[in-house]
Amino acid sequence: MKKLTIHISALLLLLGAGACSIDNYPAPDSQLYGTFLDIDTNEPVEQDIIRGSTIEFIEQGYASQTKQTMIIKNDGSYRNNLIFANTYTITPVRGNFVPVTAQEVSVKGETKLDFKVQPYIRVKEASIEKVGTKIVAKFKLQQTVINNVRKIGLYAHPEPSVGEPLRVALAEQEINGAIDPNKVYQVEIDLPSNSNVLKTGNQYFFRAGAIIDAPESKFNYAKAVRVAL
After folding, report:
1. How far is CA 195 from the centre of its chain?
2. 140-145-151-156 Cα dihedral, nearest 10 degrees
3. N or C: lower Cβ tally within 10 Å for the chain?
4. Rounded distance between C-alpha atoms, residue 102 and residue 151, angstroms
């Protein structure tokens, strides 16, 4: 019995030493960050944080070539504070902008990488305000591609990350055609009809957007606006 106890203790020591050797790798010591910027206006390209544009990146030097992903924030920025210093192939995918090509980037320490992109649609001169018993959004649209605009919408949520996938109330209009760049589009959310989710005395964020008719396209937006009801 004494010999068995000694053998078990020795085995546990070996396992512990093995675990230490497995964990004994340097931690990620670099950061990668940046913003998606409109190639013409240099303004951040607003995003959806849920089902929005994504960054895929592959660390070079490994046979597996495993794709990893980063989420883009609503304001068009992204940041990864736990990334190994190395060379990466980085590709923005499934975006609300004309597809861009992959690029190889050397990441070491604080590495800034902005993406200059062409949004499918620009939501311009947007205003959102409470008018009587409605929230009224007015804006112009600028297409940058020949694809039809599928629909426009106004979305409400208690959080500033509001958008088509994250809303408690919405109003949408089907377009299914080209837009008139001089026309002022108007979308309204009726407050009495949504009183169960938009309560008087509270504040909510409202965001206007439009989506192009293209594979895997996402909404393009104006900035979210906070309105007190």
Report:
1. 29
2. -60
3. N
4. 30
Q: Please report, as a single letter, which amino acid is at residue 26.
A: P
Each domain of the chain, given as residue ranges in start order, spans 30-117, 121-228
DSSP state of 129: E
CB neighbours of residue 112 within 10 Å: 10
* Residue 47, phi then psi, degrees to nearest 5: -130, 170
| Fold of the 121-228 domain | Immunoglobulin-like (2.60.40)
Helices (runs of H) and strands (runs of E) counted in the chain: 1, 16
Alpha-carbon torsion angle 36, 39, 40, 46, nearest 10: -20
The total number of residues written for the chain in this structure: 229
CB 178 within 8 A of CB 224: no
Q: What are phi and psi of 131, to 5 degrees?
A: -125, 105
> What CATH number labels 30-117?
2.60.40.1120
Joined tokens for residue 112: 């800034």
- Sort residue 65 into left (φ over 0), alpha (ψ -120 to 50) or beta: left
CA 138 to CA 132: how far, in whole Å?
15
**Model pLDDT for residues 35-53, shown as the tens digit of each residue:** 999 999 999 999 999 989 9
For residues 141 and 75, give the distance between their C-alpha atoms in angstroms, rounded to a whole number.
Answer: 19
- Per-residue pLDDT of 143-162, as tens digits, reads 999 999 999 999 999 999 99
How far apart are the C-alpha atoms of 185 and 119, rounded to whole Å? 19
Residue 192: DSSP 8-state: G
CA separation for the pair 88, 84 (Å, rounded): 10
